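Quality-control log, excerpt.
Job 1 of 2 completed; input and output follow.
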Amino acid sequence: FPTSTYIRMWADTQRELDTMLQREREEFLQPEEDREKVMKMLATAYVQYLEIFRNLEAAHDHLIHQQKRAAVRQALDGVMGRILEIKKEMVALEKSECPYMDGILMELKRVPEDIEIPIPKYFIKENLRILQEREEYLHEILLNAGLLEQEPVTAMTLEEGIKVIQVAERARQGRARAAFMKRIYLEEKRQSQKEKQETGKSPDDAATCIQKVWRGYSQRKKTEKLREEEMIFLGMNSTGMINGTGSLPPDLEAMSYLQKANLLQGEVQKREDLSFRQELRKTEGPHIKETLQDQITQCFLECRHITGRFPDYPPEKTGGSKAIFIEKHPEQVAEELAAKKEAEEKEKNGKVQEKPKEKKPQKAGKQVVDLRWKMGPSNFLSMLEEGSSQYQVFWENRDNRSDFLQDHDPELIKGREREEVEEEIRVQVDEVMQEKLLEIKKAVDGEMGPQGKAKKGEKNSGEKKIHRKPRRGGHENQMMSLACRTIDSLYQELAEEGLIIRVKNVNLSDYIGYYDCLRSSLRRTGAQPLPSIPEVRQLVALYGILPLGSQTVHENAPLVKSLLLAGPAGVGKKMLVHAICTETGANLFSLTPSNLAGKYPGREGLMMMFHMILKVGKELQPSVVWIRDTEKMYCKGAAKRVEEMNFKRLAKLLPQFLKALKPKDRVLLVGTSNRPFDANLGPFCKAYQKIILVPKPDYLTRFGKYFNSSSWLFLLFRPPAYWLHYILQSGGALTKLVNLNCLAQVSDGFTQGHLVDVVHTVLTELRLLQMDRKPLRTAEFVTSLARHDPVYKEEEETFQ
């Protein structure tokens, strides 16, 4: 689509956002007693904010104008944070991570796909070069350390070598003999044609015979194609059975062009920023400097006129001269100095009077508790309102028809650069005015500078300082050596020890699954079934991907430091961890029991390891710390081996690790567990703020047949389900001999890992070569599936 399409989309979305903000000011600020009404308001706002989020993300991804992208980015981050705040309120109200929302979707005429969480593409695009360099550096470290997995090369025995030579020689002899026999056959055929040349058919008869055969063949093909199109229209077949693919490839050429245009515009704007900054220093710098000096001098004179003395110059930590103009007026300074002087006089005379005690109000019956719901404070509404006001001032009435090249606006750059130039000049003026103030004080009031007075602390300067001796264990020495090391050396050590691993390139959308309306109806009755796969995708995106991808969202949104993915083996927990890292460009630290065996022994070693991970993770954020089989840290029995004991020590250090994470640190702790019920549930659940249960695929996900559109004008369409997706992805071709419905029924109780293993077992390299002559059959997959054990109902109930 052209750029004007996304400019109009931005304008329409901004109007919808203004409407939402007005509605929030009217509805959410009033206390409400009816919980169902509150839940309806929150769910409606949640769905509408998601639609705004989706449109803003599309506009931000396709716009080339860098200043417009910055304005859209501010609104995009604000909407992401507001969605997380509303989700927190919904969870607190319903006491469930997956509330019932089918009724709201029906009222708003939306389908379940409309509440999917989109992943902003700028998480990766804006840091693409840094991520590529880091990936190359990690690859080089692992290659030098010999930790890269290489295909094993087996040496050929003498008998195998002789057999290969014999096969090649016999094949050569067979080809030579076949060529010789072909020449003899053609010679005999030529002789026989000469003899029958006079008695053959006429040219008209031969042409009629050829036409008959060709017309029959052509009509059979057309009939077969019409039959397949009718089956697709009725929903009894899929397009993947005809062309072998389930979807069309993306327009890679357009994507690469857009990416190059964004990079070019960014480089041009950076050069313009530097040129404008230098121009402002030359043209407006002297005037700004003179104005600041006059204002500061006038403020000092007013303070002396009111208080009788010059004030102290604010230090740079508090903002320097900024604090003079922003925080306090001369009258406020006078009041503070008078109160301070009065307090000092009272202390000297010992006449400090105690404040009269306030009388406690008498208890008049039981205290009334307000049980009405009230929306909590938001950190993003002010950001959204500021972005909306900036849009109305700069972009709403701008004529974009003449801006064909989507070039930057010089006036906006000058306004931003002017603030930075003023800040640079202010620092220089502060240094000059501070010295000038000391000279004036010395000349007028007779006061001395800091060098002329003896400080209170200098009286005891001759006393000896007591230094604490380090402990014998040498733990402080290890921490001191760790503080002196560079990030590159720490990163290299962690990679060589196998604690930093390479991230598999999988996206969250690759975790296939569809909504199950039966689970939603059960929630309506008050039951709490396992979440469906789309709900798992939503929770992983909300608690894992969105905060890690945006610094603004992570600092201001409800903070989630730890996340637990629990479910049977093979349901895709590892894939979700790698998807979080892929979507955000995060480093992946792997703390599995096998990984920690023989490394960093003892409590001091583990503490040093956590310090290294924390230092590298904060410096190279975002980062994900993955603890696999995390239930073993909290197992009820005593550890039998040294490795198990060392792994259980992690449980005592995890609270300290999580406490060290601040809102500015984009570091997430993710645990995965196949058997969470084996752990001591008290400390186990306390360590993880959010727990997500990952289910096995249901029938709809395995087969994937349903109406994908709310409009009857659209054709019936079946998205790729597990069996279809994995078979086509592995190079297989589907025919009528493969009954997907039968496979979906038979594979009930099996996990995604089982299905992938079955497809890989059947579709070997040799079997793919035989595909044209020997099509796939349902029995091949059923035979391989029978060798696996399903997840039984008893095990599934233990997770609930």
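Job 2 of 2 completed; input and output follow.
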Amino acid sequence: MAGKMPALPGYFHKRESFMKRRLLIIAGVVLTMAWAWAPRLGTTAATQARTLTVSQTPGAADFTSIQAAIIAAAAGDTVEIIDSAVYQEDLLISSSKNGLTLRAREGQTPTLRGTTGTIIRVFGAENVTIRGLKITGGTSNGLATLGAPIKNLTVEDCRFEAIPRAAIVLDNEDTATIRKCQFLNLGGPAIVMTTGASAVISGNGFRGGPMNGQFSDGIELVGASADIIGNAFIDLGRISIGTFPQSEDASTRTSTIRIINNLIVGSGSAIPDGGDGIQVVGSANTINQFTVVNNTILNSARYGIGVGFEDRQSQAVLANIIVTGSRGSVGRNTSDLAIYSDFSRSLTAMQTTIHHCLIGRDLVFNSSGRNGNITGDPRFVDPGNDNYRLQQESPAIDKGDNSVIQEFTTDLDGEPRLVDGDLNGTATVDIGAYEFQVAGVRCSLQPAMATNQAGSSHRVTATVIQDGNPVSGVAVTFTVTNGPNAGASGSGTTDGSGQTSFSYMSNGMAGTDTIQASGSIAETPFTCTATVVWAPPVPPIQYGQTITASIDAAGETDMYSFQAAAGDVVRARMSRASGSLNPRIRLLDANQMPIQEASSFDDAILDRTLDAGGTFFLLLSDDNGRETGGYGISLQRLNNPVGAMSLAFGQNLTASINTAAELGAYSFTANAGDVVRVRMSRSSGSLNPMVELFDSTGMRLAQVSSFGDAILDGTLDAGGTFFLLLSDDNGRETGGYGISLQRLNNPAGATSLSIGQTTTGSINAEAKMDAYTFNGTTGQMVTIRMLRTSGSLNPLIELFDPAGRRIQRISDFRDATLSVTLPVTGRFSILVSDDNGRETGNYQLSLN
């Protein structure tokens, strides 16, 4: 079971000591162990399996006590309860009862109400089947295994209800099948598996209730393997399916966990801070291989799926999953996918594959729009009444990956998995636990949902099928029934693919049209609809551009469009300029479907590599929809920024940041091994300089910021073209700045000095650095003096060895002197500048 202290948001849940639970189980065994050794009354030497009956009606059966019948049974016998009475007793199935079946007679539902301890104990017996019982009460667990590993335990068609602790406990290499059972209102987890146990868990129902507490999970796995197939988890107290690390002193175990075709709704009804649909974790001694496919996970109190790995061998594949509606906090936002903060973020991200899922909101893996992942409303039939099957218009239809369904070719209803639900001629698996089934006469319109600019044209294609097959020669009428273009109409006849199309021109007004296609086949009518949003003209934004605007009312959004090519690495930055606005950026594709988003208290930055080219949109708003204020929005391409100014080693330029979110771009070329320095110093205003260095692919190599004077030093591993983005640290402040670039190993434009020489120079711009070089030998003592002769310069001297490593620095208000013993022989470099990069003046420099 889970840890005694509720975990903080963002943390995975741990388990209490399993040994503590084992001691409680064993204590109960001692009370009844005499049953196992008592002589079996009425036994014979017969070898044929018998059926021993039990009823509380005297004379109606062989026994009135279930335990008495079990004691009398031999290996392979059946104990059948023939009435629906309540039996208040605890049972022990000992190791001599291999092959025993304990079952209810067809049509009867006997209740086994426990008294003390665990209600059913299976002690070393193999091939035991328990069927058709209602198991409730007791003071501990519903069913637990003891002794040697229990092989081939089957529990089916049972109802576990109102049990204080776990319903079923398996460990010690046990193997089991648990199917078609109901687990209701439990004080602990429904199923606990540890220490190498393995099970097939299928067709079961799990539901929460008033007894739920901090340990009320659906399934807990600790160093155990399981196929969890086709189950429903509704309103569980905490986690619906949770994996947990073993204790640190446990032996290493590798487990395989397949979670397929499950419905998981409302996890965390009792413990919202731990309410996760699925908890996916692995550790150094608990190596787990996860396949999580075709599940529907909704309305979790915290995360739909939380993932955390601290080892390099655990892996998780998440595919064909609907996960949406989670309410847990990640910063200021909710996310349906999360990485637990107890685990390595980098390892978890690297070892988790997410593809072909419908995700409501992913702020952690940023998977939406990649690898077949989509977002949006799943369009369930009737979620208010727990019907999570897909409507005909669902975006999840035929959007999955056929390669991951393995042998599971039916859905949660037992219906076929591969159905051509979108009528495009190819049977593709749907996303989620349920497959949309095509029957009778049906039509569909594609695209089902679209967004176009007002004033342009729109085309839809109707497909008509009968019993899954396209029908040709069918007359179809198209009508725009609602919206700014209501009344537009057309008609067509289906071709051999069962398709016909309709196009119309928008009248230029914004709004949403509903398009209906209708007709009939052999007097069986059909209709289908689609929608198109006619958006008002969207102002464009270009790479290298900054625009200022404002959010003036609660709930207001602004939109901008831009053109990009496949492979562009884009940066959008939205910074508050006034008011209390908390910027939020959403990047949308050409159909205005979300790809990625970013938000912040005052400065939101979104970086994204685009997989395809075309038109994209930026949707801007306040993060919580309540605050207002002015903002700046800038757009830039990080791999080859537009408008970048060329900068050379030894060069100094001046420029300014004039608006919120503005980005200044520069480019330079360098060789592998160059030690570069970039300096950005404020010259006016309230600018807090920030310098970012990118390689030619748009990967950021380094970043530094400062109150007034930012200095970035770094060694380049490869040669080529590099880019600099300069801005204000929080995106809000403005002002002038100076920018300089220098190479610290062999500075460009350096003046050669000799020992005993004195020279003069001038720092006449912000961030300017003058470079000098001289030859020196190991152990030689040198003194460098920099004296201000005019202006407000605060002298700064920096000495570098031949490799570009700084040996020493010193600064002073007026007169700086640096004395040092040289560590190596070679050509040394001196950089002189103003201490804070802002002041200017003349100076005298001497080397002795």
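Post-run check on job 2. Residues 1-13, 15-46 have pLDDT under 50 and may be disordered.
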